[in-house]
Amino acid sequence: MMASVGPASDTAVAGLPLSNCKLCLSDRPLVKSHIIPEPFWKLLKSEGETPLLHSTIPGDHAKRAPIGVYDKGILCQSCDGRLGVWDDYGHKTLLRDFDEVCVYEGKRLAGIFDNIDYKKLKLFFLSILWRASVGSQAFFNRVELGEHQNRLYEMIRSEDPGDPDEFAVNLLKLEGGQSRIILSPARTCIENVNYFKLYMGGYVAHIKVDKRPTGKRLREVALQPDGALYVILQDLRESGEFEVMKRIVIISAEKKRKNSLSE
Predict the structure, then answer these.
(1) What distance in Å separates the CA atoms of residue 131 and residue 155, rounded to the nearest whole number?
(2) Integer Rg of the chain from CA
(3) Half-sphere exposure of 32 (CA within 13 A, CB side)
(4) Domain ranges of the chain
């Protein structure tokens, strides 16, 4: 279970108004915290470009996000530090080279990370989904978990990653070029099972939000407590995400053209 938080944890943010922390449920000063950890945003800035957020909500406009998306209304300092342990493990695991790559007929099919801590990595993904669902940022407005909300909260509060099929996690990585456009989370259905897709630094995490079992196609490569993580590799230009990004670029260019004509 999550340990109790003592009064001393608030001294570093003394003077801030007290609010209800959405994790420990205590009235404490809340801190600014990233929903998707900052290192994933820094990766997109490595070539000097500012990451560009694009919501899948019709009519919403792209926004620049130099330091990513953060929320000041979710966590107290102590709880932010607790989730930060998982964030730290997640980015140090994923933002490194694969230990092994599966290649078939010259094509990279999957990357493998060995010796994975299932509990830490699973809770890393679940905590991002939970933060997105309880935060106030418009970029994450479509993350609505319904009947699954309470169970997800309980798992994070008690530091319980659950079995591999509960909120199953499958990971895909887009290769062949890095786009500075970050898509907002989207609901998708695979083999009649509901998932949310989270985009983070070239990765697309599919997290199952459904009581039905994971389909056969994804079950074998879902995150498992066996020490290895399999990441499906896909060329960015062959993905559905690329088509969305291409449309965004075309629309943005057309808007700039019309704005220049009206000036």
Answers:
(1) 13
(2) 19
(3) 5
(4) 11-262
